[in-house]
Design brief:
A hairpin with a 5-residue loop joins β3 and β4. The protein has two domains: 67 residues; 145 residues, no CATH class. The protein has 278 residues and is mainly alpha-helical. α3 packs across α4, α4 crosses α5 and α7 crosses α11. It is built from twelve helices and four strands; from the N terminus they run ααβααβαααααααββα. The strands form two sheets. It has a two-stranded antiparallel ribbon. A two-stranded antiparallel ribbon has the order 3-4. Keywords: Cell membrane, Cell wall biogenesis/degradation, Lyase, Membrane, Transmembrane, Transmembrane helix.
Length: 278
């Protein structure tokens, strides 16, 4: 009988001790729903029975793939990002203000929690990396600035049929040579792509009234380079601006099937227009 009573007392003491330990653990937590949370309740039991607690699982941050093609404007990029992720087009444009031409076209992986400014900054840093020291040195040797090159590259990007998949840039280099030739003799660049930038259209040709638009970006009305890039060029267009082909051509046109036809004189150019664009 005495042994039985000892067992009862021992069990009661054990139960009291367990309740005391439980109350101590509960008092160390500010939340009252620990046992409603599986991970928290498991940690409580680990502490209660002296077990090594398991670390919380690591949940990777959500990412979004962003693909920026060569030749997109800042407006194009802002619209795309607003459709692709949580960013507002207005925030993208604000972050990219004054940086047209320098948002490098590429495929990016960005966190869904990233701000518009951080996404734009990623593109700007990529531009800085792609424009290597060698390219920058060659630009300086030519007596040009990076801004000159990027403006010219943006024109080439919009005018030349560049195949980035095959890295075909022959037409881009010839058109680059034509544009630099025109600048040397003070001839207008007369690029319809600059009118499209003003009008926000994608027309290959424009009306006589469009040619008279009073904008410094109108290269029919004003000679020299426009005041800024008209798009964000890719690396082949940038290289074509730095290393243009040596050519005697001063004119070119692009057929509906994207074939480029060149001419040395204006008369020859008019003949080509009649032949290929009539």
């Amino acid at each position: 009988m005495a042994k039985f009573l000892k067992k009862i007392v021992f069990l009661l003491l054990a139960v009291i001790l367990l309740f005391w330990l439980y109350s101590k653990i509960i008092n160390t937590h500010s939340s009252g729903d620990d046992f409603a949370n599986p991970s928290r309740s498991e940690r409580l039991l680990d502490r209660l029975f002296g077990r090594e607690p398991k670390p919380d699982p690591i949940i990777p941050a959500a990412e979004i793939t962003v693909r920026i093609p060569e030749g997109w404007t800042n407006d194009d990029i802002a619209t795309y990002l607003a459709q692709t992720g949580p960013w507002l087009a207005a925030d993208v444009l604000e972050a990219a203000k004054g940086k047209e031409g320098y948002l490098f076209p590429d495929t990016y992986r960005v966190y869904a929690s990233s701000t518009a400014a951080s996404v734009v900054d990623k593109m700007l840093k990529n531009f800085d990396a792609k424009l290597t020291d060698e390219l920058r040195a060659d630009i300086t040797k030519q007596g040009k600035t990076v801004e000159d090159i990027i403006i010219m590259a943006s024109l080439i990007e919009k005018e030349a049929p560049i195949n980035y998949n095959k890295e075909e840039d022959e037409d881009a280099r010839i058109i680059g040579g034509i544009f630099w030739n025109r600048l040397k003799i003070g001839q207008g660049l007369q690029s319809d792509a600059t009118l499209s930038y003003i009008l926000k259209d994608k027309e290959d040709q424009h009306s006589g009234a469009d040619l008279q638009i009073d904008s410094l970006y109108n290269t029919y009305k004003y000679r020299g380079l426009p005041p800024g890039p008209i798009a964000n060029p890719g690396l082949l267009a940038i290289r074509a601006a730095i290393y243009p082909a040596t050519t005697k051509y001063y004119y070119f046109l692009t057929t509906p099937d994207r074939q480029v036809i060149y001419a040395k004189t204006y008369e020859e150019h008019l003949q080509n227009k009649y032949k290929y664009l009539k």
